[in-house]
């Protein structure tokens, strides 16, 4: 088991070194482009759940006037609707 952990540590270290080299190359390329007055290469945007989510037109937005025009559902407690207060259930 000791040999496997040593091999794993070596591979992990090599991967870390490669990543560091790649980042350093990107930084030098960006600096060179800035020195020459060129536009630096665009930074990559990671793919996340939020970035890949598509807008759903069935979702109600709170500022949609057409949706809340005919009913009092848009009125909250601060606008006069809802619970009036009191001590609760006796």
Architecture overview:
The protein is mainly alpha-helical. It has a domain at 1-31. Helix content is 42%, strand content 0%. It is built from 2 helices and no strands. It has helices spanning 2-35, 49-52. The protein starts with a helix and ends in a 38-residue tail after the last helix.
Straight-line N-to-C gap: 69 Å
Average predicted confidence as pLDDT: 80
Q: Bin the strand percentage.
A: under 5%
How many β-strand stretches?
A: 0
Q: How many helical stretches?
A: 2
Radius of gyration from CA coordinates: 29 Å
Largest sheet: number of strands, sense, barrel closure? none
Structural class: mainly alpha
Low-confidence segments, given as residue ranges, are: none
Shape: flat
* Helix coverage percent: 40-55%
Question: From N to C, what is the helix and strand string?
Answer: HH
Write the layout of secondary structure elements.
Layout: H1 2-35, H2 49-52
Sum up the structure in keywords.
90 residues; mainly alpha
In short:
The chain is 42% helix and 0% strand. By secondary structure, it is an all-alpha fold.
